[in-house]
Amino acid sequence: MRRKFKAILPFVVILALFMLSACGGGTSSGTGSGDGSKKDEASGGAISAKIGVISYLSGPGAAYGEAITNGLKLAKEEINEEGKVKIELVIEDSAGKADQALSAAQKLINSENVNAIIGPTLSTEMQVVGPVADQNGVPIMGTSTTAAGIPQLGEYVFRDSLPESQAIPAAMKKAVDKYGAKKVAIMYGNDDVFTKSGYDTMKKTAEEMGLEVLTTQTFQKGQSDYKAQLTKIKNLQPDLILCSALYNEGAVIMDQARSMGIDVPFVGGNGFNSPQVIKIAGDAADGLIVATPWFGGKDDPKVQAFVKKYEEAYGKAPDQFSAQAYDGLKIMAKAIADAGSAERDAIRDGLAGIDSYEGVLGKFSFDDEGDVVMEPVVLVIKDGKFQVLE
Amino acid sequence: MLLEQLINGITLGSVYAIVALGYTLVFGVLGIINMAHGEIFMFGAFMGVVTTSMLHAPIWLAFLAAIAATAMMGYLLERLALRPLRGKPGVSHLAPLISTIGVSILLENLANQWFGSGNHPFRSRFAEIHFTVGDVTVYFVQIVIFVISVVLMVGLSLWLAKTKAGKALRATAEDLDTASLLGIDTKKMITITVIVASAMGGVAGILVGMAFNSVNAQMGLSVGLKGLAIIILGGMGSVKGAVVGGMILGLSETFIVVAGFSGYRDAIAFVMIIIILLIRPEGLFGKRASDARG
Fold first, then answer.
1. pLDDT tens digit sequence for B115-156
2. What is the DSSP letter of B133?
3. How far apart are CA B257 and CA B264, in angstroms?
4. Distance (Å) from the C-alpha of residue B182 to the closest C-alpha of chain A?
5. Could you tell me what percent of chain A has a pLDDT over 70?
6. I need a labelling partner for B219 at 20 to 30 A (CA). Which of A343, B37, B162, B273 fits?
7. How far is A165 from chain B (nearest CA, A)?
């Protein structure tokens, strides 16, 4: 009995390992059909537009969808009050799954006949939905999709979310200037697409800036011991540590680094930019530098008014996702007003023409491909809170 | 530099060793792999977080809370998931393995529900005591972890070799039916085994929380699998094997980073298992499970 069990045990272990390490996601792509463009009915001088929203409203990332739809609803109220454009939102849940996002998009395009779409929430969803919207000639704007290549999916695909490829260099430049850094160490999570692409950006930027990369260390999700990597980094004495991590791992890395006596600043990507870092790492989080499209503490009446309104409506402070969604719909409304029509093609052209729009994210334009052009704010954690890095 | 890395490796190895001791004890007596051990370890760590960070209680109380909670979990595991399957005709010998996998999934989900996802910091003043020699920072916790792992190993060996309970346990491991006939309360012995093993898991959990300051609901799985790897490496049911295997794994994980291959850190454990199994299928200290007690 027991011998039999011993014989199969190694296989059980190896099988379990595969289960642990196998983690893949397939995407399916379909093609939508139908090309319903809708005549806009002018009602009392306002242009009516039906905007479809695909958002992550159920499942583990439901907080994202909630923040996004909250921002959208707030923007919609303000736009409709203003009276130039009358917006109707049709909100669909994608549960963070590409196939559900696709069927939601097809429903919005074909049976709801929306004029434009905002969403989906994740880059992986946009990879599938973007081309379909493009084929149907429906303008689509991601407000939270930061992966590379999203605006290049098609003529009709836009985003107002700052990609990592812009945020990380902005943070690095500011940090290098401020601290006069010449030598850096890099750490990144090598089992996650997001942290891996952040690392690629860091490496490229470091080369362009002529920084000396002393060492590159990797880690995996959910690890709890980073001391071996950090000891190595400590002995090379870098001026800065570039760390492409999600906040969960990043906070623990900083905590262990500080306890080992590493006191140089850390520069992180978007995944590291979360108040949770302060919650997990406490004082050890001081010295984390990130670039962000949205900062609620900005000294700008527009920003403060938005924060106040949002807090009154939802009882908590708006985050990056609410702010990007809020500005996204406002930009959409401006495109409609500029074009003087809610025809799908007119909205597309209106969006392409957006230049130096002053929103809560700051001065915003689209480039030729429909990608973001803006100056991100660079923040540093100091005395246990995010502050603008001067 | 190397000295610091050596300390890192020994700390990690000691943690692995304590986890593997719990595994090896249950395997030695019951001949089953307790896949819920990693999750019991995780609950021990969370008990530490709850008592120190939320209730601001001293660290010794955290140890007591963790030991009490995990011992209780061990008892429930034995009563609800293992005992009903024992000695019944027609029950596959894989049934206990599957049922402990079920328990592990249940515990992970419970932890997610109760404590929330993500990392929880382990704030305790005890964990911050350290001294610096040259430029090497040594934390008191690192020494404590090492000492506890050695104490547990020696204690467990002595208990099994010298005490009456230990003898009864070995007899139970040797042959359940004969031990029963000779008047040993095998039910009680098995229950004690699972409780002791689980409490050791709880202690390991607290130590990990203190050493690395991160506790999350998913931490049980990888530690559990590594514990499993270690007992295969060291020899199933061998106390010495668990500790030596744990040290080997902790040190190799650290030194693979030193060598500049941090991406292969998790793979090294399993590469080693495969090599060891090819050379010595019974593991480093493996003998027949029933008399492997040294």
1. 887 888 888 777 778 888 877 788 888 999 999 999 999 999
2. E
3. 8
4. 22
5. 89
6. B273
7. 23
